[in-house]
Design goal:
The protein is of the alpha/beta class and 369 residues long.
């Protein structure tokens, strides 16, 4: 069924199709009867909950950053069964991002190229949406005066968790970048379950330079100091690029150990264009951007395996890059990932992707019992 729907959406420019699909789903989910039905159709087995970072993930499949940049579709993503989602990348000030078109399909490769450029509504707007989302999740009760209030009982089952993916504004010079991360961290802290620091997008000029050890240490240690000032500390993860050399990855690992970082997300999109079926002419017409999807599957898994081996499994990893099926998720988890994220796979496989991955993981686990 989704293959037919996908053909229709693929008639539109990629970014247009994205918002058509998600806004359409938002309309459907606004009707409680339809939302309950979709929840039943796409729900995954709750027995696959994962305890990590002091949090309880209802299943190991999340949605990577960049899909819901502005926290507009949280109810819809929860309805589709995701265990968690990263919102953002969020910056202090609103950004239009790079000129359109900036999102492209490579159908032959089951891949995407994007150069979105951290387009988002700014941290203040996103924080307000997240606050409203949190309030909507609390059960409504009536007090003695008959007024509607909210209660905050401990949940009986794991919640849909939210990660705040934070970055810097394009106009902010790298030497001042730590201030942008501070602003976003402080504004989102009450409203997200964990943070992902994004210094690895290829679409903001100079951003990847912040992956160098000293620049990275300044940002992360400052965020950790801030984190300690809150009554509840939130896990802080770092998202790394798949294009790092082994020496650069070793620097990241050394820093993570030194400052006791909570974990890594491996990996972001790649600037590598090798071994693609899409023609050189098409790629040149598209131009710059980060490549995601199946061409990244093996590369990201190899990075996960390397980090896991170098740390003896002591540094938690969220595996991201080319996850389309349960087999892909299983490969990343066997390599050392505790959780996985999808993005491009969601576009090509459709809304059943979480259910299918969880089902395949469960079948695989039963097979080897």
């Amino acid at each position: 069924m989704y293959r037919i729907i996908r053909k229709v959406f693929f008639l539109f420019p990629a970014e247009t199709a994205h918002y058509l699909a998600m806004n359409g789903l938002k309309i459907v989910c606004a009707v409680p009867l339809f939302r309950r039905w979709l929840t039943q159709v796409y729900s995954s087995n709750p027995s696959k909950s994962i305890a990590l970072f002091g949090l309880n993930f209802k299943n190991p499949v999340g949605l990577g950053a960049g899909f819901d940049k502005n926290a507009r579709y949280l109810r819809e993503l929860e309805t589709l069964g995701f265990g968690f989602a990263e919102i953002g990348t969020v910056t202090p000030k609103p950004q239009e991002g790079n000129p359109k078109p900036r999102l492209f399909r490579l159908v032959k490769d089951q891949a995407l190229i994007n150069r979105m450029g951290f387009n988002n509504d700014g941290v203040d707007v996103v924080a307000k949406r997240l606050k409203a989302w949190r309030m909507s999740q609390k059960p409504k009760i009536k007090n003695q005066k008959g007024d509607i209030t909210t209660s905050n009982p401990k949940p009986q089952t794991p919640n849909f968790l939210i990660g705040g993916n934070i970055g810097k504004n394009k106009a902010t010079p790298n030497e001042e970048a730590w201030k942008d991360y501070e602003i976003c961290f402080r504004a989102l802290h009450p409203h997200v379950d964990f943070f992902v620091v994004n210094v690895s997008s290829p679409n903001t000029p100079g951003l990847r330079e912040l992956q160098e050890k000293e620049a990275l240490k300044k940002i992360l240690t400052h965020l950790q100091e801030m984190n300690g000032g809150f009554s509840v500390q939130k896990p802080i993860l770092l998202k790394i690029a798949p294009d790092l050399t082994l020496e650069q990855i070793d620097d990241v690992i050394a820093l993570a150990k030194e400052i006791d970082l909570d974990g890594l997300v491996a990996s972001n999109t790649t600037i590598d264009r090798q071994l693609l079926q899409t023609s050189t002419a098409e790629l040149e017409a598209i131009g710059a951007g980060g490549l995601s999807g199946k061409p990244l599957t093996q590369k990201s898994t190899e990075i996960i395996r390397y980090i896991h081996q170098q740390t003896n499994g002591t540094l938690p990893i969220i595996g991201s890059g080319g996850v389309f099926t349960g087999a892909h998720a299983q490969e990343k988890m066997a390599a050392g990932a505790s959780l996985v994220e999808v993005w491009t796979g969601f576009i090509y496989e459709g809304p059943q992707i979480v259910r299918n991955i969880c089902k395949q993981l469960e079948q695989s686990r039963d097979k080897w019992k």
